Amino acid sequence: MSVADTQSLEPKIALALSGGGSRAMAFHLGCLRALHATGLLSQVSVISSVSGGSVLAALYCSQPGDFDDFERKVREVLTRGFVGPAFKTALLTPEGLKAVTVMILLGLDRLAASAVRLVLKWTRLPIGQKSKWLRESRMRRSASRTTILRRTFSKLFGGRNLPELRSDRPTLIIVACELRAKAAFYFTAKRLHCWRYGSADSSNVEVAHAVAASASYPLALPALDECMTFEKGGVCTVRRVTLTDGGVYDNLGLAPLWPDRDPQISLVAGEFDHIIACRAGYALEISDPASFMLARMSAAFESVFARAQNQAMTRLFDLKRAGRIKDFLLPYLGQDDRRLAMPPEDLVAQDTVAGYPTDFSAMPNEWIDRLSRRGEQLVHALLAEHGFGSVVEKKTPPRLERQDG
């Protein structure tokens, strides 16, 4: 079940855009600006994206106009943010009232289940062992803060469905995580896919729905809870799925791009000679002691999270050494600037961007310029230092005009 219908004789390039909220959007904007300037962006055949990277990628693959129009739209979106528009959506549309109603009903449902469990514990009746309702509500969270965000995204993407993505732009794979199967869930213009369930029809799925699922950070936003019909091995089955931030499974968006994925099981994006992986995270820092439970859990999560991303980055090096890919490019927001062989004189230093949050609040123009400029500079510096196989010749990066901030 390949996403790509044909295999080009030209070198195939895949682009992965990591998560990281608005920070990722701004950083990736700069990376795309540099790739556009060098002609590499037009050679990209597939974009795989997560969370904030999915917002940017979906804009690139859906908005009309040229790259300058796309950049103006992204800057407008970043300046406005999504928090304010989401509040307006909650207050001015039925979605806010629905979300509150569902939250109350679910709370009452779970309160009743807790009371029944307590009674059964006192009476020592074995009924509780057989009742699934006592462990999990039969109610679906049909409205929540995430559906409010989805409705906000719907305005941004003009209500377009996935098959309406631009045909002259790369194939887009939006990555989410399915919590029941504990597996990746992929949205594409042709199908939805989870290896545990099979494939589902994407014709009536909005771009906004895919982006909201990919960007619903679990500590702040509930998972999208819905039923879908999947086909696997010629058998159609209705499944209940709960979709959350794709970064939970793969924050770099590299999973669908690895070589030798089994088409009988996995969604296969194609075979790629070159991979560009844009990572909008920071290098690990030594933090205060995790003395309390929440701090310990947060530190433990970040440790596992960082380890998974570092393993994915290491795999790029392993694949190149093994000859499985010809080359890769790894623009990394947390790049150690001392390791750049050919940095520009006016490089936006790593320590000047460290600490910007990963939420979707409005971003000041100063930070849009700073984060995007660093992404642009890193791509040019890495191309000048390493080249990119046979796709682009080594050359000195163009002089970038300094911007305030």
Describe the structure.
This protein is of the alpha/beta class. 39% of the residues lie in helices and 15% in strands. The N terminus and C terminus are likely disordered. Keywords: Hydrolase, Lipid degradation, Lipid metabolism, Plasmid.
Give the second-level CATH assignment, the architecture: 3-Layer(aba) Sandwich
For CATH, the homologous superfamily is named as: Cytosolic phospholipase A2 catalytic domain
Distance between the termini: 46 Å
Order of helices and strands: EHEHHHHHEEEEHEEHEHEH
Instruction: Please tell me what the overall shape is.
Output: globular
Low-pLDDT segments: 3-9, 394-405
Mean pLDDT: 88
Helicity, in percent? 25-40%
By secondary-structure content and strand pairing, the structural class works out as: alpha/beta
How many beta-strand segments?
Answer: 10
CATH class: Alpha Beta
Number of helices: 10
Gyration radius (Cα, Å) is 22 Å
Task: Report a brief summary of the structure.
The termini are far apart. With 405 residues, the protein is α/β, with parallel strands linked by helices.
Question: Which keywords apply here?
Answer:
405 residues; alpha/beta; Cytosolic phospholipase A2 catalytic domain; ten-stranded mixed sheet; 10 helices; 10 strands; 39% helix; 15% strand
